[in-house]
Amino acid sequence: MLPRLLDDPALPDATLVPMTLNTRSSVPLSSLEHVKAYHEQTKHEFNRFAKSLGYLDWANQPDPFRRFQGAPLISLPILTLEEDPLSPAYEALFQGSSIPSQPITLNTVSRFFEYALSLTAWKEYNGTRWALRSNPSSGNLHPTEGYLFIGHHPGLSLQPGLYHYAPKEHGLEHRWQVSSDTAEQILQHLPHEGFLVGLSSIHWREAWKYGERAFRYCQHDVGHAIGTMRIAAATLGWNMVVLSHTSDETIEPFLGLQRKQDFHPSEREYPELLAAVWPNNAQPAPNINLAFEKPSDQVLLSGEWQGTANRLSKDEPVHWDIIDAVADASWKSTQESEIISFSSSSENQNPEIEKASEPLAGQIIHQRRSAVSFDGHTSLSVDRFYTMLLRTMPNSELPVPERPMPWDALPWNPTVHLALFVHRIDGLPSGMYWLNRHPQKRPVEDFQSAMQEQFVWTTPDNCPSQLPLYLLEEGDAKNLAMQLSCGQEIAKDSAFALGMIAEFDDSLDTHGPWFYKRLFWETGLIGQVLYLEAEAAGIRATGIGCFFDDPVHRVLGFHPQTRWQSLYHFTVGGPIDDGRLSTLPPYGPHVA
Q: Which of 181, 409, 200 is nearest to 295 (CA)?
C-alpha cells in the first residue's frame, strides 16, 4: 500500500490569503535566512497557493522578445539540417568526443544559437499566434535572455564585442563594440578559439502570471538554457562549462545590465551566469578558471555601448518585493578561483557514421515540445526507461571535464535526486522509486534513515549496475502523483512522473545563499535531458512547476525538516496533440 496523503486532499482555494513573509521584523534576516524564508513562503499547500495576482492582465502581458533599439542587428543565416554544419546523430552526442570540432564561422555561431535559444515553430489558433523555442520555459513566458562576447576570428564576419541574441529575428544585436586588442585582453585566460555566452533573467515576465513563485521558475529556465547551450555546443564538437565561481558583480557590468539608462527601471534584467565555449580540439588543452576575471572599469568604459531596451509592458509591471528580496539575498558577491583542466580530443576518423544514422540531433531539438496532456495508456520499455535515467546521471566520481555531456557543464557535485512514480514501464512493477544521483557522497543509508520506515529499498531486476535505482513501495501511484502535482492529470496519465529532491539545507549551509539558484539550475538541466530523451523515444515530456511542496515531503518522510526539498516535477508519456492548432515554420515571411 502506497503512503496516503492527508485525509482531505482538496485542491487549494485560490481566494485564500497566502502566508506573508514578515519583512518588518525588528531582527533583520541574514541572506541565508531570507532565501530559506522565501522558499517556505512560496510553497503550495492543499489549503493555499503561493501568492499571485489572481488573474491574468492580458493587456499588460510582457513582450516575450527583447530588442535593443539603436543597436545594429546582424542577421544569422537560417540553415537547413542538410547545410553545413551538418547535424550529427542524436546518439553521437553521448559518445564522448566522437563529433569533429567545427571552426568558428558565422554558420557555426548561427547553428549554436539555433539549437540553444532560437524559435523552433509558431503555433496558431483562432487568429492568435505564439512562438515555441529550443529552450523550454515555464508558461512559455521566456524570462531568459542570451548574450555572446567574442573576439576576432578569421572567417567570422562579426566585429569583436558583446552581442544580445534576438530569437525572433535570429540575429545578434551589437551592444558593446570593442577593439580586437580589448577583446583579446578580456578573453586572455580562455582558449584562443573560444568565446563567452551569458544569461540573464527578467523576473517580470514570469511574475506577470505566477506571482511570488516566479523567481523559482526563472531559475528552472536558466537550467534548461544551460542544457540547450551545452547540447548545441556538443553538436558542433565544442565544449562548454559554466563559470560558476564568477560573482554577479562581475557578470552584471560585463553584460551591460547595470546601465540603468538603457532599461526601464521596472523591467530590469538580472545577471545569471557566464559560460566558456571552445572547440574540443583546442590546442593547447585549456585550463579554465571558473571565476571569470572582471574587466577593469577602464575597459568597461572603452569602446561604444549601443541600444536601449524596448518596453515589455505598456503599463507599469506589478511589483513583487519578495522577488526583489530573494534576488538580493541570493546575489553572489564573491569569486573563488578554481582552475580545471580539459583535454583536447583527436578528430573522428569516420564522422559520416554518426551523420548517417537517425534520428539527427537537430531533428530532436527542433521537434521538442512540452506536452499538454497524455493519453493514459502509452507505456515505455524498461530498457528505454533505464537509458533515460542513466542520461541524468552525472557520474560524479569522475573529474568535471570527464563527466558525460551535458553534466560536464556544471562544475559542482550533484545535489538533486529523483523520486519516481512509475505507472507504465513494461517489465517494471508500478510504484514509487528513488534514484540516488550522487552515490559517491550519499550512500543509500542516508536516505533510508530519513525516509518512511516501510520503504523496502530493493534493486529492480535487470537494473544496470551503474544505476542506483531503488523500489520504495510497489502499487498504483497514479492518483498520488496527480494529487501531489496540484491535481494535474498529466502526472497521472503519463508513463512515469517524478519529483526532483534537492539536498537543500546542506547545500545552502555549505556554499551560501547564492547556491539557491544553482539548485534550480541543476533541476532544469535534468529536465532538459528528459525532454530530449522523451522525443528520441517517440513520446513527449513536460515540466511541472505547480506541486504541493510539503505534501511531497510528507509522502517521502522528510517533513517537517527541510534538509530535503522538492524543487521541480516532471512527467513523460504518450502525448495527445490538439488538432485545432496550426503549426508554422519558425522563420519566414509570416513572422511579423
A: 181
Question: From residue 62, how far is each of 45, 59, 68, 210, 568 by CA, in Å?
Answer: 28, 9, 15, 13, 24
Encode 404-416: b = buried (16+ Cβ within 10 Å), e = exposed.
bbbbbbbbbbbbb
CATH assignment of the domain containing 209: 3.40.109.10
The answer to whether residue 140 is domain-embedded is: yes
Whether 291 and 336 have beta carbons less than 8 Å apart is answered as yes
Q: 173 lies in which domain range?
A: 70-341
Where would I find the H helices in 197-339? 203-210, 214-235, 248-254, 297-300, 321-329
Number of domains in the chain: 2
* C-alpha–C-alpha distance, residues 432 and 418, integer Å: 10
**Is the distance from CB of 491 to CB of 509 less than 8 angstroms?**
no
Pairing of strands 119-125, 431-435: unpaired
Nearest to 336 by CA among 255, 240, 247: 247
CA atoms 326, 329, 334, 339: torsion sign? negative
pLDDT surpasses 70 at 5: no
Q: Is 54 left (phi over 0), alpha (psi -120 to 50) or beta?
A: left
d(CA 321, CA 193) in angstroms, rounded, equals 43
User: Which is it for strands 73-75 and 171-177: parallel, antiparallel or unpaired?
Assistant: antiparallel
pLDDT band for position 232 (cuts 50, 70, 90): very high
Residue where the block lists cell 580530443: 345
pLDDT one-digit tens code per residue, 341-371 = 998 875 554 444 444 568 999 999 999 999 9
592, part of any domain: no
Question: pLDDT tens, 262-290?
Answer: 999 999 999 999 999 999 998 888 999 99
Cα distance between residue 332 and residue 249, in whole Å:
7
The torsion angles phi and psi of 447, rounded to 5 degrees, stand at -80, -40
- For residue 413, what are the contacts with CB-CB under 8 A and spacing of at least 6? 394, 396, 438, 441
Instruction: Please tell me whether the overall predicted TM-score, pTM, comes out greater than 0.85 for this model.
Output: yes
Question: Facing residues of 125 across strands?
Answer: 128
